[in-house]
From TrEMBL:
The lineage of its organism: Bacteria, Pseudomonadati, Acidobacteriota, Terriglobia, Terriglobales. This is SulP family sulfate permease. It is found in: Membrane. It is a multi-pass membrane protein. It comes from Acidipila rosea. The chain crosses the membrane at residues 42-58, 87-105, 117-135, 155-172, 179-198, 231-253, 274-294, 306-339, 360-392.
Length: 509
């Protein structure tokens, strides 16, 4: 092991304590998301343990934390309600296989194409989602099962404990960073509540976390095409949502730590984690931006932190459930409120008026859609908007200079890119009826990008032929020549000067 990769005692302590803090923060989240998906809380806790351990040990982004997530839980609800939890386990197995295939095909690199405004919208949207998710802890169920907001003394106690937790997290680092402030806050508030006898909601009020080691469990479903037709659509959605959230979180950690993760390796680790979850009675998951922010903010940068979190979570289930269940929910809510505040990119407000309006629109659109619908939909929508805006702006950059040479020929000197968004403007540049008998279109400073551009060139050549004019196309690439139909006879081939880029076209075999 090289000196740069070896863990110092101080760094090991930081990662272990951060892992313990993350494990405590994972408990209520895993329980809550399991309840959202209509499965037993242990199904969520086992998923958090398995995903956290495998992704941390083998993933491509040390310091990132994985577990059961709300973005995947909301997709599972309909499947569990309609077909039962065994179909969920089968779906998670297939989800893992799809994610493994994604990693093996090395498709993770394409996450680098996500525009920065989409990243800002993703971060802001998830920060709001984290905040809103905590509001559910301010509700209780009555004897009929109906939910009501807490009020009066219970509300006052809970708010006071939340404020105390947040103050410790914000103020302790000014005194010392030897111990993660989030861990100190959780322990201090828990001890205060226990020794003063304050009555407030605890982890145990949500559900019991006592259990055994997860055991191998083959999903009890018919292994036939009928089952595949049921689980495949859900598996595709879960795989997509999981990978998008994971890879965007990986990008975020890259920016924070000024380092470079390995997205394809992370895809493989996520796939392996979900595959194991499906065979061990767990609900699967992906990267968690909230717990990741806790970990990174604590200074943890190594795999040890995530591995510690996973093992601590398992030890809670096996040995320390009675202690963990006494932790006030308010302490964990306070931690997540701080995470939400630190995750939100407040600097995005400062870009208003300083960046193009369409970038601001993308940030707002992705944020809003993330909050009200689905993360995957939000990111895809943001990418589509950004791509269309780019195409529109790029299309306006095509230009032409015209001149008459000494032989009386009109020369069009093009600059810019000819592609689907600029073909109409490209064709409007030419005036076949008014031009002389000899016309040259010079592509030295222009580029033909796609099949739409080739069709536009063919169309222009056809117009000149119908007008009885001679057209010459100069400095087109050889592949353009091969794909042109009507205009092929007008191309002047120069093997030395002609460009050799390749047009993206399905006709090229």
């Amino acid at each position: 092991m090289s000196a740069s990769s070896a863990l110092s005692l101080s760094e090991a302590k930081t990662n272990i304590l951060s892992g313990l803090t993350v494990a405590l923060a994972l408990v209520p989240e895993a329980i809550a998301f399991a309840l959202v998906a209509h499965v037993n809380p242990l199904v969520g806790l086992y998923a958090a343990f398995i995903m956290c351990l495998i992704a941390s040990a083998f993933g491509g982004r040390p310091g990132m934390i994985s577990g059961a997530t709300g973005s995947m839980a909301v997709v599972m609800v309909a499947l569990v309600v309609q077909h039962g939890v065994e179909y969920l386990f089968a779906t998670i197995v297939l989800t893992g296989i799809l994610q493994l295939a994604f990693g093996l095909l090395r498709l993770g690199k394409f996450i680098r194409m996500v525009p920065h405004p989409v990243m800002l919208g993703f971060v802001n949207g998830l920060a709001i989602v984290i905040f809103l998710a905590q509001l559910g802890h301010f509700k209780v169920k009555d004897a009929t099962g109906a939910e009501h907001w807490i009020h009066g003394r219970p509300l006052g106690i809970m708010l006071a404990l939340i404020v105390a937790t947040m103050l410790i997290i914000y103020l302790l680092p000014r005194l010392t960073r030897a111990i993660p402030s989030s861990l100190v806050a959780i322990v201090a508030v828990a001890l205060f509540a226990i020794f003063t006898g304050i009555h407030t909601r605890t982890v145990g009020d949500m559900a019991s976390i006592r259990g055994g080691f997860p055991s191998f469990h083959l999903p009890a479903v018919p292994w036939n095409l009928a089952t595949l037709r049921i689980v495949l659509p859900y598996a595709f959605i879960l795989a997509g949502v999981g990978l998008i959230e994971t890879l965007l979180t990986l990008n975020l950690v890259d920016d924070i730590t000024d380092s470079r993760g390995r997205p394809n390796r992370e895809c493989l680790a996520q796939g392996a984690g979900n595959l194991v979850c499906g065979f061990f009675g767990a609900m699967g998951g992906c990267a968690m931006i909230g717990q990741t922010m806790i970990n990174v903010s604590s200074g943890a940068r190594r795999r040890l932190a995530g591995i510690t979190a996973g093992l601590c979570l398992l030890s809670f289930i096996l040995f320390a459930s009675s202690l963990i269940e006494r932790i006030p929910i308010a302490a964990l809510v306070g931690v997540m409120f701080v995470v939400s505040e630190k995750t939100f990119e407040w600097g995005s407000f400062r870009v208003f008026g300083k960046v193009p309006k369409h970038d601001i629109f993308v940030i707002i659109a992705v944020t809003v859609v993330t909050v009200f619908t689905d993360l995957a939909v939000a990111v895809i929508l943001g990418i589509l908007i950004a791509a269309l805006v780019f195409a529109w702006e790029h299309a306006k950059q095509i230009a032409v200079k015209t001149r008459i040479d000494e032989e009386g020929r009109k020369i069009y000197e093009l600059s810019g890119s000819v592609f689907f968004a600029s073909t109409a403007q490209f064709q409007d540049l030419f005036t076949p009826r008014e031009d002389p008998d000899d016309v040259i279109i010079e592509f030295r400073h222009a580029r033909v990008m796609d099949h739409s551009a080739l069709e536009a060139i063919d169309s222009v050549a056809d117009k000149y032929q119908q007008a009885g004019k001679r057209l010459h196309l100069r400095h087109l690439s050889p592949d353009c020549y091969e794909l042109l139909q009507k205009a092929r006879s007008t191309v002047e081939v120069n093997l030395i000067e002609d460009p050799r880029y390749h047009v993206a076209d399905d006709q090229i075999s």
